[in-house]
Design goal:
mainly alpha
Amino acid sequence: MTELACRWVQDRLPDRARDALDIADAARLDQHLATCDDCRAESVVVNALAVPVVVPAEVEAKVLGAIRANVRSAVTNGFGIRHYGMAATIAFALLTGSIFWLQSGHGPPVGRTEPGATTMLALPDSDPLLQEAGLQSLSEDELRTLLEELES
């Protein structure tokens, strides 16, 4: 059989198992199944899967009870909702604490800078290079030479 015909049949096998095909499609499908071993084998599998399985009530109750017990133990022993709340509280505290710390002047300046603006690093007055015998006493040429040496 052609691959296209087999694909058409295999797509409709679940509908046939539920008696949901119209008469013309059912006849075309039956005609194909009479001549195609592969599709007929697939039809047997689909028909077997279409039969509803009846689960005894006691088995269903056992399974549901086991699921509920596992859910309860996961919530009480594992990472439950209260843990997510605690993690969110800690994250909020760290975020707000770091914002207050930065705004109090302990960290780098907080705020926006204009595009293209340069920021200057404020060095403490106790820096030995900024004392009279330091960088301030150097000429412009000496500073350029120093920068070239530092960059190389």
